Amino acid sequence: MNYEVNPGDPRTEYGNTDINLKDFKSFDPVKDLPDSFIVGIIASRRSGKSFLINNILQKFQKSKRKFTHIFLISKTDAGFEGIPESYRFNDISALDYIINNQQKIKEFNEQQKKKENMYKSRVAVVIDDFAAGNGLKNTAIEDLAVRGRHYGESAQFGLESNGLNVFVLSQSLTKISRTTRLNLDSFFLNNISSLKERDMILDESFYINTSRQAKRDGRNTFEKLVTSKDFRFIVINNYIQNKRKLSDYIMYYDANYIKPFKLFGDRIDWIGNKHFPTK
Prior knowledge:
By secondary structure, the protein is of the alpha/beta class. The protein has helices at residues 29-32, 49-61, 94-110, 129-132, 139-147, 178-183, 195-206, 212-226; strands at residues 38-42, 69-73, 88-89, 122-128, 163-170, 186-189, 233-237, 250-253. The protein is globular and about 55 Å long.
């Protein structure tokens, strides 16, 4: 509850909190995400995680920032019809193969004098926690979170947009290591049922400072945003440096339905595919 302002009453450190949802912007993944990003998505089962990421991938592939290849690492192999079979894996060990291959391409491109001799390799990887088990805390993912831009290229020594872009999906916040969480470029979440995990998210991302007022603002912002629309996701943009108020780096995202299409690949990649039969 809110208390009337009374300088003699310590409860008024909380003050009155007015959260205006119009202050918060809608997130545009194509425009807002940096190159060589790593993104985390925390949500319970059947709450729209896969639909969300598939929608973001579709928007990238309809833009000038499209990915050359998209890999899915998932135990269930469900959803993401636009990714061909040969780019779908069920074990987290595939991530090492993808990273090593990207490193080789980077080293090759850096040795070339002409851009036309370089390989275009702007890769996206989708990893879910069913495939990883406790592997979401493995060193490869932490390395991508801390040093992910190391696998990207610059206009001076390669192709500027080349690099690895990673989506990590999980039902539980604690399955992703704290090192990874704090180094995510962006963090998507919706209504978290675990009070402990909700408090962790608030403590790590929603408090501008340590005052009681700031904590109350953070809690109220979370509650209002997450309940403002069904299947709405809050987006926490950690890559934004200048954070004076919550709306500087916290946004929301509403995924919309886009008819499935082939996200990438040539005719050979799609031979025998049940979703897009070859004519």
